[in-house]
Request: fold
Amino acid sequence: MEETIKFRLNGKPTELTVDSDRMLLWVLRTDLALTGTKYGCGEGYCGACTVLVDNEPIRSCRTPVEDVEDKEVVTIEGLANNGDLHPLQKAFMEHDALQCGFCTPGMILTAYGLLQENPQPSYSEILQGMDDNLCRCGAHKRIVQAIQAASKEMKGVS
Amino acid sequence: MMKDTPASEMLESECCEPVDEQRSAFQVSRRGFLQLLGSGLLITVTESVSFGQSRATGSRRSGTVGARLHIGQDGRITVMTGKVEIGQGSRAQLTQAAAEELRVSVDQIRLVMADTALVPNDGTTAGSRTTPSTVPAVRRGAATARELLTEMACERWKVDRGTVKVREGAIVHPATGRKITYAALAGAKDIAKVYEAAIPRDVEVTPVSEWEVLGTSVPRPNRRDLVTGAHRFPSDIVRPRMLYGKILRPPSYGATLSAIDLSEAKAMDGVVVVRDGNFVGCAAPTSFRAAQAVQAIAKTASWKAAPHPSSKELFSYLKNHARSGGGGRRGSRGGANGSVEDALEKASKVLREVYGISYIQHAPMEPRAAVAEWNDGTLAVWTGSQAPNRVHSQLAQAFGIESGRVRVIIPDMGGGFGGKHTGEVAVEAARLAKGAGRPVSLRWSREEEFIWAYFRPAGVIEIQAGLDANGLTVAWDFTNINSGGAAIASPYEIRNKRTQFLRSDPPLRQGSYRCLAATANNFARESFMDELAAAAGADPLAFRLAHIENARLRAVLETAAKRFRFSERKGKNGQDVGVGLACGTEKGSYVAACVEVSVDRKRGSIDVRRVCEVFECGAIQNPDNLRSQVEGCIIMGLGGALTEEIQFENGKVLNPSFRQYQVPRFADVPELDIHLLDRPDLPSAGGGETPIIAIAPAIANAVFEATGIRIRCMPIRGVALKQG
Reply:
């Protein structure tokens, strides 16, 4: 069923007519050319497709696009502020918290949600908060370090 | 069947390079209609590499400086390589290699990777060959260019080579204060001479002691694009008018399509249906629509199933189908020394055990993907493969077109781990694109990736060995069925040895995996070394050291044991806690690991709490990247060691999802102490694979120390602890 859906995307009002059953992931990637959000499994088990909806990380592969009507969607492309990278993005670069980088957008946005909820998480809280995001290259240790560094940098303010 | 392949390819071929021909087989009638269309590919879809005007025709002949690099008049240097970046850090390392020899900073270099229209064939990105083969090739090319440019400057100034210096991309003559940059020379009339020059095999490269760029932790050049989502992975490539594809897969392995009604999909708006024998696929403006179209016709398909064994009977199946004489691993990799039978007969103690290795999947985060675009009989494909040139030939062959009419481009891609050596998705995308008359993007689903990508081979490993009265191993008889011959030869000094690899009739399509069968062979060998040590009443560390003459292997093992305080900790752990160690060598590098595990016998679970791993691969070229690779190997190794296993029955994979197939997660990551032994006096070997081979046996040995129960399979099934 084609419907007109309106929402804010990376700070800008967006309106498009799409089959409302389609998942947000594919609308972002195919209709809106934002390919930073990745397909990893399509079942919500890997976290590669994570985006922020009203500032909370969600799995865009399991979210019908109609669910974001009137909401604020932020993808990895929208996280930097006028070219200034978010502290998490900087920390991922500085700690080389990635290898192939395919899981990275989802990792960063999941970590964003974690720091929103718990600005100064302990080591084990980070492990717990990130546990549903998969990385096959094995950058886990560095991802944890990057999140710790970003938490410090943000001093509890996101 | 064996083709004449370079040594680097042989390493990866093993028993088990997957065969794609069957799966991409075209109907004969279709092939006849594909005509050869003459030579000369006009590159219409292009990377914006601007080659200088002055560049002479023929200057990119294979083996010339021009095939390897180009110096822009703006001072930017473009270096070309056939290697791919797959997360292992080759982009940084090869950039360093060129910068080192050209005496420029890494920022001045732009590395064009794996575009078959632009780069030399550097072979498949596999076998840890980038460091020992491609880094030297790039260095030789860069050093040749530097020397030729220096000669040009000397000729201009009429001075001796010995009186000038090269630094920061310029040649300087200190005596007169003259200076000329590469960029300025690149604009000279006679620059073609430089590009046309052949790169000598013996050109002198910078010795390790003088390295300024190599040996340092240069970060990933495109890291910003990776954290902002700007980088386009193969599955992110978009072309004008592009459609999205979906392939109809058989319901089980070996099933053939007897009938299908395509009408419903054909009637769908914007949908193109392509059928060619068993190949059926749809292309549509969105992947959603393409999937709907395939679903609609899948309901009408009738399939003829074929019998297929189950994973429950895997080990007996492999053993029953083992073929003698299929070894192909004689000489240093196998073969025999001394008389094993005699030695076993005379031994004071003989042990015999069998180890089972399950099938596993690579499960890279980015499933395989390709975008194919036809233009006047030429084909361009962007895809995620470790083997651009193999994919290139596969496409030319599949469509019966000349090699010059095919272009394969591999954007920096999602991980591969040995699982992306093939071009099936490229061929499928090109078939759909041909039928649709428009570019098509095809991305496998996670389920397709689990079922239809090739697997890391399963295997059965049988070992028997004899100890003499002094507790030394005097006979060693090792047979690997099906999983492969990598690292099959024991690095231990044993007088009478026999090692063989037997092919079997693999029930699943199998191929490369990070470090190939070295993991399986080392798992069985290092587990069995502990069993022998126990039988000899010896300490596992002392027992190994008594059989090691190789100084490099000894060094990693002793260092790991010392850092971990293995001897102090062994036998002094609490209940259900144990420590274990293992070591090994493969691809010219050496590894040892000590681990601490705790087990929960009620739940049948194994928790790896600490890992100390020591790795040595000669002179280290990028320490931080190497450390990253070792971390990755350890964590990936945990999966194969503890949880990963493909289950199948009646031709169907029973666990084709991340819900059922458990890969390592954050909570599984142990405390890591990684130590890299730098050996500037030794040639650099690759480091992205061998660090994986010690982790599984060290865990099995630690589980034994904790419980007295020996688990002889990978994954090491904790369920055995419940029964024990």
Notes: Chain B touches chain A through 56 residues (CB under 8 Å). The domain at 65-227 of chain B is CATH 3.30.365.10 (Aldehyde Oxidoreductase; domain 4).
